[in-house]
Amino acid sequence: MSEAKTAKPVSHPEMTTRKDNWWLEPLLIATGFTAFIIYATYRVFENGLYEYNQYLSPFYSPHFEFEWWHFSPAILILWIPAGFRATCYYYRKAYYRSYFLTPPACAVDMHGPDKYTGETKFPLVFQNMHRYFFYLAVVVLVILYYDAFKSLMPPAGGFSLSVLSLVMFANCILLSNYTFGCHAYRHLCGGCLNSFSDSPRAKSRFQIWNLVTKLNLKHQFWAWMSLFSVAFTDFYIRQVCAGSMDPFVFLQF
Ligand code: FES
Questions:
Q1: pTM above 0.85, yes or no
Q2: Separation of 52 CA from ligand 1 center, angstroms?
């Protein structure tokens, strides 16, 4: 993330000599983030309409219930995906540009004085916790897969396949593509090696690293797709709980 520190902003009274619509991308990103944050905050504090029979919203999974906890159970879990995304390399670039304008785009002057000190000092030093959030995010992802499989089993017994279950599985797949394209995970698979042939598990490590690299190349795409899918899955389950949408079961026995 040294780009903002090393890039030489163009010294110009109007911030830049660029003639293209450089402001469009940071504007769209800020709009998308803000919309998601408002929706997620509303859902966390709504503290209801998150469980319908075998369907559980990803915002409330795993569903903790403690006698000593009197607030929304979503607060107990959402700090993990929130911390994972907030410290993600892609999201850092996106919100440094869109919210803090440091700088808002390549070859565009910084907004305000250059106080960027890298991620070695408080508070940005906490961005280095990303790898630990990755481990926790994998645990949450496994639980979401469990929820998706559980959605196939109605409380009365048997098996049922619905559009809502398919949405829950699609959400898990999109989240997997985002999570396992993580830069920290890529380093975990292929890092600390001068060459793969020196490693005792060279072939398998190289194969995993190759797969992670493919996902990593589209990390921005998977970041947005999974952000959208997790909100949509929650919204669908909320509407089913409210009685305004149907899970649309199309196979049952
Ligand atoms: S770098 Fe984006 S999830 Fe790790």
A1: yes
A2: 32
Taking the centre of ligand 1 as the mean of its atom positions, its distance from the CA of residue 234, in whole angstroms, is: 22
| Binding site membership of 96 for ligand 1 (Cβ less than 6 Å) | no
**Does ligand 1 lie within 6 Å of residue 184's CB atom?**
yes
Residues 202, 208, 213, CA angle at the centre, nearest 5°?
120
Pocket test for ligand 1, best of 219, 224, 226 (most atoms within 8 A of CB): 219
Give the integer Cα–Cα distance in Å for 94 and 202: 35
| Full pLDDT tens readout for the chain, 253 residues | 444 444 444 445 567 888 888 889 999 999 999 999 999 999 999 999 999 999 999 999 999 989 999 999 999 999 999 999 999 999 999 998 898 888 888 888 776 556 666 778 888 888 999 999 999 999 999 999 999 999 999 999 999 999 999 999 999 999 999 999 999 999 998 877 777 676 677 778 888 999 999 999 999 999 999 999 999 999 999 999 999 999 999 999 9
For ligand 1, whether the C-beta of 90 sits within 6 Å is yes
Residue nearest to atom 3 of ligand 1 (CA): 182
Residue 245, exposed/middle/buried by CB under 10 A (0-12, 13-18, 19+)? middle
